[in-house]
Specification:
This protein is about 25% helix and about 30% strand. It is of the alpha/beta class. Among the domains are: about 160 residues, Ribonuclease Z/Hydroxyacylglutathione hydrolase-like (Metallo-beta-lactamase, Chain A), CATH 3.60.15.10; about 50 residues, no CATH class. An eight-stranded mixed β-sheet has the order 1-2-3-4-5-6-7-8. It has a six-stranded mixed β-sheet with strand order 9-10-11-16-17-18. It has a two-stranded antiparallel sheet with strand order 12-15. The two termini are about 30 Å apart.
Length: about 325
Amino acid sequence: MIHATIKSKIGEDISILFRPDNHPWHYLCECGMASDLTVKEIQNLNAIFISHLHIDHFINFDNILRLQLGIGRKVVVCGPKGIASQIQSKIKAYTWNLIESNSVTYEIREIISEKEVHIFDLFPPNWDLIPRGIQNASSLFSNEAFEVQYTLLDHGTPSIAYLFKEFDKVNIDLSGSPFEGGKWVRNLKSAFEDKANIPIDVNGEVHPSIKLFHLLKTIKGFRMGVIMDHATSLENHAKISTLFQNADQVFIESYYKNSDAEFAKLNHHSYAQKSGEIMAKLNVKQAIPVHFSRRYETTEITQLLNEFNKALGFR
């Protein structure tokens, strides 16, 4: 399972930290100012995912950079077209005469379109952007625990919505069977994944793998989404519907109350009712409204949350 935590308090810029079970690294969605984000969590980041480069989603990158100097490894940063040069511009605003070249490296994956991602490396002391090629969008980011898919939404500027898909797992249940565990279990799982009928030596007894498949069960991987700023347009909702259907958990921006829907339209944002409606339509198991306008006091945010939950189907 993927465990996500909102690291920004109400009134702060949005920032969401997550980590899969039994996994060594943390991952961050959005670089807004977030007082609950710790030094240890920042230094343990393996990748950062940015929706767009408005100040409230990107301003904390400087602090993250400051705390990652000296970690001696690569951190991946994914974001929209232009993010590579904008990160470089942030970094080059400082003087770097007392830093080693292996202090930290940023691998920037710049999302050009639904089909194309450009890769750059950026490291001290000169912080030159070094092109590393173009990759297919289907492999934006992946490791042994999960893979990342995305879509580009309209917020007056491209805004990336991300889906983090934990890989399915195959578990074995030996309760009620005459077998004891052993190395054969790994061979059986491999045969199951390859749909192969091969002989399996179960502690000295050979069985066709197909006769043992009933001991295995596929556990579907957790699917977590982060949908930040987007206009409530049919095109945006169609893209959201394609990617986030039946997701386990989705954080979705709900910037305005229903009474301020005209502001949402003017500023290419979503509002409580629309965000709740699209989550209900997609049968999202846990929909979490985030990223509220700073114009609202606590009572108004409570009203916004009630509007979201009502649209979601709660009473």
